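Structure in, sequence out. Go:
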């Protein structure tokens, strides 16, 4: 039986292509000597477009910039590289594209690598069999799947777990693993499991550092995990950053339906008994106590998109107060005149025309509580048709109707809108929707994920003799942090006070108030309080209830709320509810769900010691 030895893994960036500090990178490679560099390459956050079109989340130039130091570390320091969800959506084509980029960089620098590819077998026959035998079910708030969703999907991928990575890691000759769509923590967990880490900390560390250094304070790009058998230590690479018990526990809230139970392939990670212990350097945290509980059936998440049509947009501005006062009535006139030319406009399967009024409810639509009249409005017109030509025609006609149409009280007869750009309309190409976001039972977690290995690049005897060793970069000196037990939170260098004891608003009691997608069919709200006193006060006030959220966000019933809870380890509150409109599709207002938090800022908390009036 082999003896376990602690080791380090390095997460330089939240997503490959998003960038990181190169000096911190090389300082980490040289000083910490991590065994593996691991990075996530994708997400469903940008919507269904990437999966539908095959286009990448980041440009080739951005990916090349980020991955070149990874490859140099692999060539010269023997650091393994693992990349998951290649290209953004993790399609097979995007895996090939990333491998081509790596091959080009290797050729240019005379590096030689063994590269493993993990792809996905889009087997519709198998999926239909699983559907007909009841082995595909909704994931969280996704709608019930239909057979036609499988048949009509433009593209389907699945989130692989750790097992396909583990199969590849058995081959010691592999330097780099490029995988298709993966459960975000999977490559981190896989490497840790391969090295003998217990299953619970292996998954927990992946859950945290798949976002890079965002769990540190202030939020950073890169982080190092020192893996122990039953726990791990997190240290940010930024010398001014630090991990605290609150910052680490709070990160498990980010983009999650709930922070204490995190489901994934093969099991659920329970975090209710976790401990977060500050280390002597004042910057690191020891994390221990998570529990991975296997599920009776192994399930993988299918993600599929359906092509809906083609989209064209235009933007314009309105400053005339007479038109602004009657804008809704005028837009109905424009829509009516456009419908006369395109009779199927607005029907269930026909063309669509949507006006987004920036300055007047464009972001939140019917959820917007502010009814004040703006002094100017920006209009984005969104036209969707069965072909690009139809979408262009609808956009062009409706924009002209906006420009020259008549309205009550009109005095400006030369034009109704300010047009900042030419061409006046912009064809945007195909538009999709997430039609599949469902869990499928599988007997073998590796069966749908074929693996292959190839050699890229070249290495001459000359390059073997002249391996470049980097000099240690000079980073800013670390300022020794004092006790991490303080209940005050430092944000962007400013120390904020606990809120006054009288009646106040959430914005005065918290240092984070945010919203974000939790998958394509949910939005989650997080409030992270300034202090224990603020947390206790909010909880005891009984203000942050499902009834409040139902009222603020005009939810049809309390059943649309999945979770509404306080989370003591992070001194935080979370609420997750069903998304009010399809993510990243026709009529989208906020693809990332990042601005739906605004009404929460002004929620009133009664004076200290008082409860909300019923």
């Amino acid at each position: 039986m082999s003896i376990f030895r602690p080791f380090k893994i390095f997460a330089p960036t939240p997503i490959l292509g998003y960038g990181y500090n190169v000096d911190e990178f090389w300082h980490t490679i040289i000083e910490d000597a991590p065994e593996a560099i691991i990075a996530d390459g994708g997400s469903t956050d940008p919507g269904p477009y990437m999966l539908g079109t095959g286009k990448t989340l980041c440009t080739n130039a951005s990916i090349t910039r980020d991955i070149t130091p990874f490859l140099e570390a692999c060539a010269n320091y023997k650091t393994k590289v693992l990349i998951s969800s290649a290209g953004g959506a993790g399609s097979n084509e995007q895996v090939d594209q990333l491998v081509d980029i790596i091959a080009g960089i290797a050729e240019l620098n005379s590096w030689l690598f063994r590269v493993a590819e993990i792809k996905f077998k889009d087997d519709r026959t198998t999926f239909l069999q699983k559907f007909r035998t009841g082995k595909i079910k909704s994931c969280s708030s996704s709608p019930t799947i239909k057979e036609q969703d499988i048949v009509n999907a433009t593209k389907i991928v699945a989130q692989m777990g750790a097992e396909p990575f583990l199969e590849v890691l058995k081959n010691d000759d592999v330097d780099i693993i490029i995988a298709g769509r993966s459960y975000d923590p999977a490559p981190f967990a896989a490497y840790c499991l391969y090295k003998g880490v217990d299953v619970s900390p292996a998954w927990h560390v992946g859950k945290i550092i798949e976002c890079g250094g965002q769990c540190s304070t202030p939020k950073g790009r890169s982080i190092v995990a020192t893996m122990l058998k039953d726990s791990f230590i997190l240290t940010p690479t930024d010398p001014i950053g630090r991990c605290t018990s609150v910052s680490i526990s709070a990160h498990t809230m980010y983009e999650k339906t709930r922070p204490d139970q995190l489901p994934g392939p093969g099991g659920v990670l329970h975090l209710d008994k976790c401990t977060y212990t500050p280390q002597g350097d004042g910057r690191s945290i020891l994390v221990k106590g998570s529990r991975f509980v296997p599920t009776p059936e192994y399930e993988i998440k299918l993600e599929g998109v359906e092509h809906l049509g083609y989209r064209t947009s235009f933007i314009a501005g309105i400053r005339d107060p007479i038109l602004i006062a009657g804008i809704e009535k005028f837009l109905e006139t424009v829509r009516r005149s456009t419908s006369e030319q395109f009779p199927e406009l607005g029907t269930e399967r026909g063309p669509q025309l949507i006006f987004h009024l920036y300055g007047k409810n464009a972001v939140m639509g019917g959820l917007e509580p502010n009814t004040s009249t703006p002094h100017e409005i920006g209009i984005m017109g969104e036209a969707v048709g069965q072909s690009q030509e139809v979408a262009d025609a609808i956009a062009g006609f409706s924009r002209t109707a906006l420009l020259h149409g008549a309205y009550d009280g009109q005095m400006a007869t030369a034009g109704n809108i300010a047009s900042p750009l030419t061409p006046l309309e912009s064809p945007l190409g195909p538009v999709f929707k997430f039609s599949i976001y469902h869990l499928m039972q599988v007997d073998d977690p590796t069966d749908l994920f074929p693996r292959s290995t190839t050699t890229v690049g070249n290495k001459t005897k000359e390059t073997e003799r002249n391996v470049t060793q980097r000099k240690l970069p000079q980073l800013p000196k670390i300022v020794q942090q004092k006790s991490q037990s303080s209940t005050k939170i430092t944000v962007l260098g400013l120390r904020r006070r606990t809120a006054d004891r009288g009646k106040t608003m959430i914005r005065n009691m918290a240092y984070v108030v945010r919203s974000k997608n939790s998958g394509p069919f949910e939005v989650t709200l997080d409030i992270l309080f300034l202090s224990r006193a603020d947390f206790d006060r909010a909880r005891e006030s009984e203000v942050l209830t499902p009834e409040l959220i139902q009222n603020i966000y005009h939810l049809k019933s309390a059943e649309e709320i999945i979770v509404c809870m306080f989370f003591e380890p992070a001194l935080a509150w979370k609420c997750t509810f069903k998304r009010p409109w399809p993510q990243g599709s026709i009529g989208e207002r906020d693809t990332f769900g990042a601005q739906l938090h605004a009404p929460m800022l002004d929620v009133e908390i009664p004076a200290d010691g008082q409860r909300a009036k019923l």
